[in-house]
């Protein structure tokens, strides 16, 4: 019989505070610790619930007395306190792992280097429209733990990052979706791609024969990572390059989905979310919908009326014949590749921020073909200059969203597109990618 009911929560953001509330509800003695300053909103919640917390430090003795620790995905495994916990044999888990114990809802879990938010949002939109009692959580919306504590959903659509997956052990996805794997966050994976791939494939752990694994058959890293691994779940691949008998493929500009002898077809021209990357995202969402046996008219209607996601290829407006697009959510090179690939005009590209070991060479051809000038938005732009100084004639450094918007506007010509698609994290100049996107939108409105 376990008598120690102490649980420590590291990080007092959305997921940490939600986990604290659920833990308290489950009878744990909860202590929340954050190395930074806790946002007023979360501090008020913790105080209102009478949950003990500290900020600006970690009191090791208090945390090492816990029977289990729920940690924020942002805290790396290499952090000294995490090492101490592991040495003591104290389990360190994610909020998703913790909350998953207290719900028997069906889990639709979506991961991938790119397209997670779009696919998660689209899947949720379809399920909600179909009348399912569905929650949206993970990297998006209200914390999963808080919803488990306060709601009674039958299905959850969860956007899951590799950092979350690293601290998930017994949790099981009923439907696991892996969109793609491209180099990202390699600083957290000893700069080894195989470590990052292994992390992403944890989305399938604990699955059984009654579950489903949906993945992109066109993604080289996914296919390579799957070799030599066994999967208990039923596999449903999707592809725009080849014919897929069971899964999803592209035929004469139509998405064709076939699951358990049930078919769905829709022209890609009717999709609200356009571009090659969104065809993949729509296929993945469509496969989830058919696994859940939703009606074709509902799926079609949902794919036609979904609203574009903020900060992801978001059209801001047109000034003097120049189009402005906010793709601040593009925090890795591959996202920027997708953005450039979907552009049909000449581009003034705003790049830069915190570089996570980026390999810019995959952008070289597209930059040659489409980019008139590069505007750097970051404190250290050396690697961008090195990568593109022989490819484009003009590279300008800027240090604020307002300056970047102004400079890009002057460099662009009528008919061009100014594209903020940074390929980097935002923490050098901004709070997060949302803040970067918001400041850029405000700057454009002032032009």
Automatic annotation (TrEMBL):
Binding-site positions, ATP: 112-118
Transmembrane segments annotated in the record for this chain: none
GO biological process: cell division; cell wall organization; peptidoglycan biosynthetic process; regulation of cell shape
UniProt record similarity statement: Belongs to the MurCDEF family.
Keywords: ATP-binding, Cell cycle, Cell division, Cell shape, Cell wall biogenesis/degradation, Cytoplasm, Ligase, Nucleotide-binding, Peptidoglycan synthesis
Native organism: Mucilaginibacter myungsuensis
A Pfam family of this chain: Mur_ligase_M
GO terms for cellular component: cytoplasm
EC number in record: 6.3.2.9
UniProt protein name: UDP-N-acetylmuramoylalanine--D-glutamate ligase
Superkingdom of the source species: Bacteria
Record-annotated Mur ligase C-terminal domain positions: 311-424
Pathways involved: Cell wall biogenesis; peptidoglycan biosynthesis
Cellular localization per UniProt: Cytoplasm
EC category: ligase
Domain Mur ligase central: from-to ranges: 110-286
């Amino acid at each position: 019989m376990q008598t120690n009911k102490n649980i420590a929560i590291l990080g007092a953001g959305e997921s940490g505070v939600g986990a604290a509330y659920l833990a308290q509800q489950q009878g744990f003695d909860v202590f929340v610790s954050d190395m930074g300053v806790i946002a007023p909103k979360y501090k008020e919640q913790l105080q209102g619930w009478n949950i003990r917390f500290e900020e600006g430090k970690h009191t090791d003795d208090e945390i090492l007395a816990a029977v289990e620790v729920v940690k924020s995905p942002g805290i790396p495994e290499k952090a000294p306190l995490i090492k101490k916990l592991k040495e003591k044999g104290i389990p360190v888990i994610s909020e998703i792992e913790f909350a998953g114990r207290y719900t028997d809802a069906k889990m639709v879990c979506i991961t991938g280097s790119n397209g997670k938010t779009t696919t998660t949002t689209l899947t949720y939109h379809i399920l909600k429209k179909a009348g399912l009692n569905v929650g949206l959580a993970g990297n998006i919306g209200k914390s999963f733990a808080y919803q488990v504590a306060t709601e009674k959903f039958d299905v959850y659509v969860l956007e899951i990052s590799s950092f979350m997956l690293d601290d998930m052990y017994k949790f099981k996805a009923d439907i696991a979706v892996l969109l793609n794997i491209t180099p990202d966050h390699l600083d957290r994976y000893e700069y080894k791609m195989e470590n990052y791939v292994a992390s992403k494939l944890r989305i399938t752990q604990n699955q059984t024969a009654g579950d489903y694994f949906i993945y992109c058959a066109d993604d080289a890293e996914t296919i390579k990572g799957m070799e030599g691994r066994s999967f208990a779940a039923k596999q449903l691949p999707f592809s725009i390059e080849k014919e897929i008998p069971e899964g999803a493929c592209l035929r004469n500009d139509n998405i064709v989905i076939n699951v358990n002898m049930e078919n769905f077809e829709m022209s890609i021209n009717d999709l609200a979310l356009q571009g090659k990357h969104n065809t993949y995202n729509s296929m993945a969402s469509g496969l989830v919908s058919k696994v859940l046996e939703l009606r074709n008219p509902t799926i079609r209607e949902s794919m036609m009326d979904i609203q574009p996601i903020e900060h992801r290829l978001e059209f801001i407006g047109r000034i003097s014949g120049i189009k402005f697009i906010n793709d601040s959510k593009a925090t890795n090179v591959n996202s920027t590749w997708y953005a450039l690939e979907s552009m049909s005009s000449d581009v003034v590209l705003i790049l830069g921020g915190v570089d996570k070991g980026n390999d810019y060479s995959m952008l070289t051809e597209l930059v040659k073909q489409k980019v008139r000038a590069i505007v750097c938005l970051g404190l250290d732009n050396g690697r961008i200059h090195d990568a593109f100084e022989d490819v484009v004639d003009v590279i300008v450094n800027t240090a604020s969203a307002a300056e970047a918007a102004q400079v890009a506007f002057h460099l662009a010509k009528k008919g061009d597109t100014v594209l903020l698609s940074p390929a980097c994290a935002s923490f050098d100049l901004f709070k997060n990618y949302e803040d970067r996107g918001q400041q850029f939108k405000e700057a454009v409105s002032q032009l």
